[in-house]
Specification:
By secondary structure, the protein is α/β, with parallel strands linked by helices. It has two domains: 49 residues, Orthogonal Bundle (Helicase, Ruva Protein, domain 3), CATH 1.10.8.420; 135 residues, Dna Topoisomerase Vi A Subunit, Chain: A, domain 2. Helix content is 42%, strand content 13%.
Length: 205
Amino acid sequence: MTDQTEPIQLLVDRLARLPGLGPRSARRVTLHLLKRRNSAMREVIEALRTAAEAVRPCQVCGSLDTRDPCRICRDPQRDPRSLCVVEDVADVWALERARAFSGRYHVLGGTLNALDGVGPEDLMVESLMQRAAEQGMQEVILALSATVDGQVTAHYVAERLRGLDVRVTRLAQGVPVGGELDYLDEGTLGAALAARRAFDTAGPL
């Protein structure tokens, strides 16, 4: 490979690492950006720089925003008695698009996975317990993906919450087995939230 093509291949390789972009899509994006380097490429570079400097994790819920606490945690119109537990920030965005939940969120930062060495100490479980134990908390909704890891995590969290005076529910109809929240449409998410039911820790995964 010549020196002239190395920067192009480097850009392709970096883009191919992004979720949803394989080598072929990365090459198309690279070509698009290089053909429009004075418009599209510069705009993308500036947007990346701005996001890197301004966006930070919320120390309360784990979401991302330009301020800490985040917009949702600061919003006085949100119901502080209801807490929705999700795996990732993308799930917060998906539920907000559905406009079916008016409480607060808690981002775990992943799911339990023994094979990958992800244990409770690697997730925001302890801070969740602290928030769930706050005075006035009435419900904790476990809005975790219907994957094996998601359901194992949901059962673990539900067991930890059992000793607290709080109602623990989970998403019901509309979420397919193996489905991830970020890929579901707003109507499906809304129906799942509306039909949530009590979490049975004795039931099957």
